[in-house]
């Protein structure tokens, strides 16, 4: 059912937007107080003041809903990218911002909800795309300055992957860990051709 | 309650060992057919032919049980390390073996059970220790041959972290992905001093 969240276009504005906001807010509250696997659509509906039927109709099941909220949360992180004039500075600060964000307990819970909501193998993780687009912008800027840069895949695999891994397995997600990952990725940088 | 699994010494032999084997086997079967969050101790007890009370007494709750089984599964992986005579060969084959292992659906489910069983921040993930010890042995051998080597942390952060991240978020875990991660880590290798 999670395909709802990626295949059905999201309606916007008016009543639909109000329902979405109420439901997202309710999920956010519940995620901060309940284990994801204990959250049910009736619980969300009651807190959001929405008819459970409209949640079932729109999201299909609670996993699809939790996943969509988690992805939405990811997608709105760090809209302002660091721009300190060097790739080393930008990459390090970007990694630290992501660590700060996912280190928050409610964000770790979102990430676990996303993981536990994924029952089928998918080719692309939506929040993965957001991070990839951010990494591509940082790399493009550095490339224009003639700096040595890693690939987008290297940034995703070696900064985002390890940070998210630590978050879902409740390992420490700290700024110093983020800096260590960024420093390792900088070792992979190739001179601009 | 998950602290049971790390703080209480595991009794071995006789009745206790038979209970453990029956319970682990039951969990393994259920994990292959149910979402982890739908597995209950009564379900495990029924399939294992064990009194639910003895499971509650020994493991405390289903999360602690699922986590212990997941850790036990991790801890018995890849006891035979690759030894092809070069660090590049050993690291690449080791990464491929781990990818093969966690790419199996039941193993991904174990990993998700482990993630969802972790409610408190812990300093060390048990399966992390097993992987770290394996990486340390590969690095030590290479160092003795005078090869350039990365650190144990670099191997954990940039091979294990990304592979487990892909597994829990249902992203593809392939041998080619494992080879790519190993190749990136080799770029971090420093000459033997």
Automatic annotation (TrEMBL), chains A, B:
Coiled coil: none annotated. Pfam families: TetR_C_11 (PF16859), TetR_N (PF00440). Residues 17-77 form the HTH tetR-type domain. Residues 40-59 bind DNA. PROSITE patterns: HTH_TETR_2 (PS50977). The keyword Transcription applies. The keyword Transcription applies. InterPro entries: Homeodomain-like_sf, HTH_TetR, Tet_transcr_reg_TetR-rel_C_sf, TetR_C. One of its GO terms (molecular function) is DNA binding. This is TetR family transcriptional regulator. Keywords: DNA-binding, Transcription, Transcription regulation.
């Amino acid at each position: 059912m999670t395909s709802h969240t990626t295949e059905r276009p999201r309606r916007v504005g008016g009543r639909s937007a109000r329902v979405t906001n109420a439901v997202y807010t309710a999920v956010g509250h519940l995620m901060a107080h309940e284990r994801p696997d204990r959250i049910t659509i009736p619980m969300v509906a009651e807190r959001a003041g929405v008819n459970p039927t409209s949640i079932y109709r729109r999201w299909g099941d609670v996993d699809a809903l939790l996943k969509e909220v988690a992805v939405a949360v990811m997608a709105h992180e760090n809209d302002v990218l660091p721009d300190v004039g060097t790739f080393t500075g930008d990459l390090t600060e970007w990694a630290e911002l992501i660590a700060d964000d996912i280190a928050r307990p409610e964000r770790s819970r979102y990430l676990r909800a996303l993981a536990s909501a994924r029952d089928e193998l998918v080719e692309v993780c939506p929040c993965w795309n957001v991070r990839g687009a951010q990494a591509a912008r940082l790399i493009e800027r550095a490339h224009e300055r003639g700096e040595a840069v890693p690939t987008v895949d290297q940034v995703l695999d070696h900064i985002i992957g390890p940070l998210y891994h630590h978050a879902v397995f409740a390992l420490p997600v700290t700024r110093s860990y983020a800096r260590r990952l960024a420093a390792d990725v900088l070792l992979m940088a190739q001179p601009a051709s």
